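hiii so um. not sure if this is the right channel but i have a protein structure encoded as tokens and i wanna go backwards to a sequence. like what aa goes where. can anyone help
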């Protein structure tokens, strides 16, 4: 198939917010225990953090990390994770034993080492608003109050300076602890903001939206529009049974979620006569098909193998498509968290004794994060099932192109670069990921999904030519000559 694309430097979407490349550490399975934190492992540093995990987190360059959930946050008592005496609790949501040896204090320390900004999820539904305000006082108030002095006594002299907060998690869902009608949740969320805002005037608040229900979004925004900064929506993509067309059609559904949700934000903005424009936070996107509930009561342990999903080629293509979708929605979406960072539906997997491997989905995430910073440009001419995005990296004199071919056909690509002041371009880097085996995934012992050089690629003046293999994710970095 022949495809002609045009990238126009004047056809700008928006500056990409670096927070588009966020991660997520939930107290779930082996994300924390055995993942980021494993004091017994030979890879552990002086704080018990796995150094090999930190290395890959640095490689992914994750600017923001959500913590401690997810559904876990609706039964979270932040006080359990600070100070010397840590209570062992039952986490009745995920049915795990929670030793609290990793808690708020450790997360803050880890976030610093991981060079990632913390995004904390309040427990808005099961605890009164004042408890969220107290957590922020513990985190951010310099000194001279019981809670700020408690932080200092616990060894953290300097305030953490947390500025990003989720007002609960998935409160629209019947599965979530504290699930309530939109009107009830809206009031709970608003009351939290009122208390926390006075403590931390520059804090940013993310309201729980529902990607699938504009009715919910309208109701909660009507109560909270003037108080919040972003509306969250989650993308849950089931990788299991669906056929290929249905699977990739989820990218269109996700695009619709973004458009519908931002339209509701705009509708309520007008109704409230507000100048403030909200953006969207996709603070969870999930590729998932292996939910295996632990058996309640039979065994309560810590660090169970939960949601350890293996990803195959089409998942790599899906992730490539998702990041192009986020680039192309850079004017609407300002924060994204890949759910989750380690072991649990994750790009990074670990086993004890320093065993670590990258899943295939690691690579589209990495290349999006490392090169997808700059101005997102519109690309004209892409047929269905070729998912593309372009980032103008003006400061680096580079253009990053992301091209995901989900079809079973080879694509002969001719891509014109216009209004870049007639500059000539050379190929600085070109990689692709494909496989003839649709069923294989990376494991501790074998790597079958990893990028290799994209060979058939060239430039002539302001035109790029490339051959994209069937079922391939591709990345091309062009540099001004
Ligand atoms: O990411 C796993 C779970 O999926 C999270 O806890 C929840 O928010 C979502 O439904």
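sure thing!! here u go:
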């Amino acid at each position: 198939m022949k495809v002609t694309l045009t990238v126009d430097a004047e056809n700008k979407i928006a500056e990409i917010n670096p927070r588009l490349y966020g991660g997520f550490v939930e107290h779930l399975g082996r994300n924390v225990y055995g993942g980021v934190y494993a004091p017994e492992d030979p890879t552990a540093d002086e704080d018990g953090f796995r150094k090999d995990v930190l290395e890959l987190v640095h490689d992914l360059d994750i600017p923001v990390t959500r913590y401690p959930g997810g559904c876990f946050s609706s039964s979270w008592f932040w006080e359990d994770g600070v100070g010397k005496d840590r209570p062992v609790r039952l986490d009745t949501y995920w049915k795990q034993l929670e030793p609290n040896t990793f808690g708020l204090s450790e997360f803050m320390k880890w976030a610093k080492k991981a060079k990632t900004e913390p995004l904390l999820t309040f427990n808005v539904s099961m605890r009164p608003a004042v408890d969220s305000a107290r957590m922020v006082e513990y985190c951010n108030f310099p000194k001279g109050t019981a809670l700020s002095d408690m932080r200092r006594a616990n060894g953290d002299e300097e305030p953490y300076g947390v500025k990003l907060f989720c007002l609960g998690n998935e409160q629209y869902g019947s599965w979530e602890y504290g699930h309530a009608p939109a009107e009830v949740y809206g009031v709970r969320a608003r009351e939290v903001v009122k208390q926390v805002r006075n403590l931390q005037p520059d804090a940013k608040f993310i309201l729980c939206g529902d990607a699938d229900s504009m009715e919910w979004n309208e109701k909660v925004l009507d109560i909270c529009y003037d108080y919040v900064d972003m509306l969250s929506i989650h993308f849950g993509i089931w990788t299991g049974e669906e056929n290929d067309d249905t699977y990739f059609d989820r990218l269109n559904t996700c695009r619709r979620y973004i458009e519908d949700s931002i339209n509701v934000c705009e509708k309520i903005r007008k109704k409230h006569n507000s100048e403030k424009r909200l953006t969207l936070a996709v603070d969870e996107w999930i590729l998932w098909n292996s939910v295996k509930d632990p058996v309640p009561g039979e065994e309560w342990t810590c660090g169970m193998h939960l949601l350890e999903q293996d990803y195959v080629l089409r998942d790599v293509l899906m992730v490539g498509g998702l990041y192009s979708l986020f680039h192309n929605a850079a004017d609407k979406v300002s924060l994204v968290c890949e759910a989750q960072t380690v072991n649990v539906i994750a790009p990074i997997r670990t086993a004890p004794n320093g065993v670590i491997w990258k899943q295939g989905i690691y690579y589209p995430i990495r290349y999006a994060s490392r090169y997808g910073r700059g101005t997102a440009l519109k690309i004209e001419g892409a047929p269905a099932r070729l998912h593309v995005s372009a980032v103008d990296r003006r400061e680096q004199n580079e253009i990053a192109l992301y091209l995901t071919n989900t079809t079973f056909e080879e694509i002969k690509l001719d891509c014109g670069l216009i209004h870049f002041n007639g500059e000539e371009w050379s190929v600085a880097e070109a990689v692709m990921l494909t496989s003839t085996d649709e069923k294989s995934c990376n494991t501790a012992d074998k790597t079958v999904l990893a990028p290799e050089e994209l060979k058939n690629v060239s430039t002539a003046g302001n035109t790029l030519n490339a051959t994209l293999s069937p079922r391939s994710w591709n990345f091309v970095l062009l540099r001004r000559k």
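oh and The domain at 2-10+377-480 is CATH 2.60.40.1180 (Immunoglobulin-like).
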